[in-house]
Design brief:
By secondary structure, the protein is an alpha+beta fold. The chain has eight helices and twelve strands.
Length: about 250
């Protein structure tokens, strides 16, 4: 990581630097390298999200490291705030995505032309696709403290809920000006919304317990925080007739 940081500081996202990040991503995928914040089972979620997530998370981690090093240097002003980290991660991630050719301008138009019209829209995501497709495409914004945390959340979702894996295919700024990830996710036929009892049983089997607040939709485990597990985010799937989580808030306990 130190060599990558030095290369970026010296050359920006040159062809050579892009190749180094790609090599780093390949090493993550083949298991010869890892991200220290993830344990071995969680790394399956990292890899299933695809090389673009790994590359983007690498850029975000390097950005955080660079800001921290600058703040702790002689005359530094202290630990950078989440706002400062998020702002700089957006800048660097866009530069990397543009250099790599995975930045999609006018993404809504591109998605409508290639994948179909908007099927649903919420606070966090706009969903595109056709009812006959096996996958939907999401324009997903970050509701996390930083973009790096949002990328971690995608990997952790995949680890916890592999039946609804999210895979990043690009990046953009939407017409609302927000930085958005473009990702795919399996289309889930909804028999009905899950009940609280069914959600409790599902997350309990994954090592979570109620966090004790009054919402009754937030859970914790020894390592993770799992929130927003209300019925609109957990469907009973038509074929298997079992609960599946299509979206949630998940993060490390820090």
């Amino acid at each position: 990581m130190d060599d990558l940081l030095l290369s970026i500081n010296a050359n920006g996202f040159s062809t050579e630097v892009i190749q180094k990040i790609d090599k780093f991503a390949n090493e993550i995928e083949n298991g010869s390298r890892d991200f220290p914040q993830f344990n071995q089972p969680e790394h399956a979620g990292v890899c299933s999200a695809g090389p673009l997530l790994i590359g983007a998370l690498t850029v975000c981690d390097l950005t955080r490291e660079s800001l921290g090093a600058g703040c702790h240097a002689s005359g530094g002003k202290g630990t950078p705030t989440n706002w400062e980290i998020d702002q700089e991660q957006e800048i660097q991630l866009q530069k990397w995505a543009e250099a790599k050719g995975v930045w999609i301008p006018e993404a809504e138009k591109w998605l409508t032309e290639n994948y179909g019209s908007i099927l649903a829209q919420g606070a966090e995501a706009k969903v595109f696709g056709k009812s006959t497709d096996t996958h939907v495409i999401k324009l997903r914004t970050s509701i996390y403290a930083t973009l790096g945390r949002a990328l971690e959340a995608i990997a952790l979702h995949n680890y916890l809920f592999p039946e609804t894996i999210m895979r990043i295919i690009g990046f953009t700024r939407d017409t609302d000006g927000l930085f958005r990830f473009i990702l795919t996710q399996p289309y889930i036929g909804c028999l009905r919304l899950a009940t609280k009892k069914e959600i409790d049983a599902m997350v309990s089997a994954k090592g979570f317990r109620d966090n004790g607040d009054s919402t009754k939709v937030n859970y914790i485990s020894d390592r993770l925080v799992l929130e927003d597990m209300h019925p609109a985010n957990v469907f009973v799937e038509e074929l298997t007739q079992t609960p599946v989580c299509i979206d949630c808030i998940v993060k490390f306990k820090r």
